[in-house]
Write a structure and sequence with these properties.
Elements (H helix, E strand, L loop, with lengths): L1 E7 L5 H12 L8 E11 L2 E10 L2 E9 L2 H25 L1
Helix pairs in contact: 1-2
């Protein structure tokens, strides 16, 4: 699984990079159908936003979360992505 992290209006520090990688690496346990993840971290005045585009076998998932700080935004994003992956996995089982 390839993880790409990009900053828009903010610099992606080593600490942020490590934090995002650690969080998203845990998703590998959900299944091998995740091919790549693109994470965009942005700051707009006082709002920190984390977005993820996840390429899975035969489909794409997208999630977005905002907060007043980047780390809670990333945590909320991980929760949303995790829920979407569980739904996608259930959908695969039904087919």
């Amino acid at each position: 699984m390839q993880i790409t992290i990009q900053g828009v209006g903010t610099k992606v520090t080593d600490a942020l990079n490590d934090y995002v990688n650690d969080k998203f690496k845990k998703l590998e346990r959900k299944g091998d159908f995740i091919t790549s993840i693109s994470v965009t971290l942005s700051v707009d005045k006082l709002e920190h936003t984390a977005k993820a585009d996840i390429a899975v076998t035969g489909d794409k998932l997208h999630a977005e979360a905002s907060s007043d700080s980047m780390y809670p935004a990333i945590d909320a994003l991980i929760d949303k992505v995790d829920r979407q992956i569980v739904k996608f996995k259930e959908k695969l089982k039904q087919e």
